[in-house]
Amino acid sequence: MLPSDGFFRNVYFQPYNDRGSARVINSSKNSKHFVQRLGLEKTLEIHQGCVNSVNWNDSGSLLLSAGDDYHLVITNPFTHTVCVDYKTQHKTNIFCAKFLPTTDNRVISCSADGAVLNLDLEKLKETEQNFFYCHSAPCYKLETIHDEPNIILSCSEDGTVRQYDLRTSVKCTKRSCDDNKLVDCGIPVSTIAISPVKPYQLAIATVDGMVRIVDRRKIMKNGLFQKIETEFAFTVPSLSHRAYRITSLAYSPDGRDVLASYSNEDIYLFSLHNNPYFCTDNCANDFLENPPNPPPYRRIRLKGDWGDTGPLARPFTDNFFRPRTRSEASVDVLSDILIDVFNTPSLISVVMQNPRSNYSPEVTASLRRILSKIVQQGEFIVPSHIFTNYLAIENTNSNENNIVPSTSNSNNQRDENRVNIYKKPPVFDDFIKLQSIKKRYRGHRNTRTLFKEATFWGNDFIMSGSDCGHLFVWDRYTCEIVMLQTADSRVVNCIQPHPSRLLLATSGVDHNVKLWSPQSDIYNMIPELYIKEIAESNTLMVEQSRDTITVSPLIIMRMLLYFNKLGQSGFLDRTNTIQ
């Protein structure tokens, strides 16, 4: 009796098949038995900060990683040795780094200040300053084209997708220039992807939650920008009441499907070959003119607080029965004050300024309401040494508004101020073909970071990181979770399968890169109850994150200083008199 279809059948027929090795490798990735044996092979302690990017070279002989420490590190994944550790001239956190196709010495990287570096590791002195400064805002993702080492694509918060031809120029010092602009979407672009089968097919994800597939060959004519025909587009209709950032895009190996991971939501698989339905492409225009209103904030999270991440994190629950200590009560009062401020748009700009004697009626009413809460709760005193330390920090951060936050920050911020910068309408055509949702993958949590990769493992499995610190694997067709592994003490962001072998690289908030491969002594038969517990916990925590705002300690101290000055100026007494 012959072996059934799949891995063992390909092993059986390998001696009689010229393409036996390739078939064995491909079928092994599609084997559930191998997926459930994935275990930790090696932890590479090679960085001094969060690792925001991991990528293989074409052959899979080298692994490139980069992150918050500004270093580009190239590692041999088989000997686990570092081949190159280079500190770049980037001034802010590196968001993405890749090898240029067909090369092992030419790499590219982009950072939070929008700079794109084009580096030759064999000519460091000549190329270490080869930066493209065309983007005016953070550059999130770089893409390359198979077998083409001279073309780079990038996307940015400034709303543009750019294409650089290294044969004509290796750097550019002009901010917001038009020289390399491929598409101006009018609203921030969070990520892009190139089809592995049709390299001219470009997927663009914008912050209105829409993904558009365009043909790069049809974008420019005589150097002039014009309306672009959207070949395909997709979004999640149920999410139309609110914009959900797309944190990653991935084409299936055959280029027929696109996988999109939504922040504060799930992962969706869209087919490019289903019968589309037509609609007017007014999503981005509506988003610009009438940005969706987020729900009122109910909780605050301190920037750098990772208490709601990792394998042990569980949903927040109110405990009404345990007696509150005095310090806990003070924290609750402060939390309530900050939430009130962030839910009152007229106060946000005011608290960033010095107190004035004259306020608009709206501001006065808001301040009276918040300050009366302080009075009702009792005297709220902030020790003077806190303000002294705060002022010292403030003096060293006079340009803090120009600093771009790390990827370790939550992206659950109000989008109105950012979006209002982009008043130009997108250049896409008026009518688009919307593709229907093919599959939905649930159970993970994608709330805390700008980047959360989801990708294909072979043809039959979907992988993603999670804020619970787990690596998730789903069956592509049944959407069943078939494997869970703890892969970070906080958050798993990056997931990159080896191009040919049963080897996986992951990274996240931990300052390392982890390599995973099938282990003979591991068989991850996960109890259904455990999977259900993790999935339900993640679902609830996603809901809670939607009404949580991440606040910088400097902003908190500024607000405390502001209210302290109000008290000293007698404003509180005047508002009580008015009442």
Automatic annotation (TrEMBL):
GO cellular component: Cul4-RING E3 ubiquitin ligase complex; cytoplasm
Domain of life the protein comes from: Eukaryota
WD repeats: 485-517
Gene Ontology BP annotations: positive regulation of transcription by RNA polymerase II
Classification via SUPFAM superfamilies: WD40 repeat-like (SSF50978)
InterPro entries on file: DCAF8, WD40/YVTN_repeat-like_dom_sf, WD40_repeat_dom_sf, WD40_rpt
Keyword annotations: Repeat, WD repeat
SMART domains given in the database record: WD40
Signal peptide: none
Name under which the protein is recorded: Uncharacterized protein
Organism, scientific name: Aphis gossypii (Cotton aphid)
